[in-house]
C-alpha cells in the first residue's frame, strides 16, 4: 500500500481511536525501539494531561519516528517528546 493511501485510511480512523488504543499503538512502537517526536510551530502552551506544559497542536506540526541513537543526536532523552520548533526544548 502506498503512503498516500495509508494516510487517507489513518485520517478516517484517527477520529475513532480512543486514548487506550493510541497507547497500545505507541507501546508497539516502543517495543520496536521507536519514539514519537512532535515538533510544533506554536509557542502557545496547554496543560498536559499528566502535568506540565506542552505546545498547542497546530496544522503545521511535524511527526517523526526516531530511534534512541537519533534522539541522542538531537540532544533528547529516550522517550516521546513534544517540541516547540522556536525553542526546541522538550516539554
Explain what you see.
- This protein has 3 helices and 5 strands, in the order H-H-E-E-E-E-H-E.
- By secondary structure, it is an alpha+beta fold.
- The strands form 2 sheets. Strands 4-1-5 form a 3-stranded mixed sheet. A two-stranded antiparallel sheet has the order 2-3.
- It is globular.
- The model has no long low-confidence stretch (mean pLDDT 87).
In short:
This protein has 91 residues and is an alpha+beta fold.
Secondary structure blueprint with pairings:
Elements lengths: L2 H12 L4 H13 L3 E6 L4 E3 L5 E3 L6 E5 L1 H6 L7 E4 L7
Parallel strand pairs: 1-5
Antiparallel strand pairs: 1-4, 2-3
Task: Give short descriptive properties of this protein.
two-stranded antiparallel ribbon; globular; alpha+beta; 34% helix; 91 residues; 3-stranded mixed β-sheet
Q: Mean pLDDT, nearest integer?
A: 87
Q: What global shape is seen? A: globular
| Helix and strand element order | HHEEEEHE
The radius of gyration is 14 Å
End-to-end distance: 34 Å
**Helical percentage:** 25-40%
| Quaternary status | single chain
- Beta-strand fraction estimate: 15-25%
If helices are DSSP runs of H or I spanning 4 or more residues, what is the number of helices?
A: 3
Order of strands side by side in the largest beta sheet?
4-1-5
**How many β-strand runs?**
5
Name the structural class.
alpha+beta
Q: Mind summarizing the main beta sheet?
A: 3 strands, mixed
List segments where confidence is low: pLDDT < 50 over at least 5 consecutive residues. none
Amino acid at each position: 500500500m502506498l503512503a498516500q493511501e495509508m494516510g487517507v485510511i489513518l485520517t478516517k480512523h484517527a477520529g475513532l481511536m480512543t486514548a487506550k488504543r493510541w497507547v497500545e499503538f505507541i507501546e508497539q512502537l516502543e517495543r520496536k525501539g521507536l519514539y514519537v517526536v512532535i515538533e510544533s510551530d506554536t509557542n502557545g502552551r496547554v496543560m498536559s494531561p499528566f502535568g506540565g506544559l506542552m505546545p498547542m497542536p497546530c496544522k503545521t506540526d511535524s511527526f517523526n519516528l526516531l530511534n534512541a541513537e537519533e534522539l541522542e543526536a538531537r540532544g533528547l532523552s529516550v522517550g516521546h517528546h513534544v517540541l516547540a520548533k522556536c525553542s526546541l526544548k522538550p516539554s
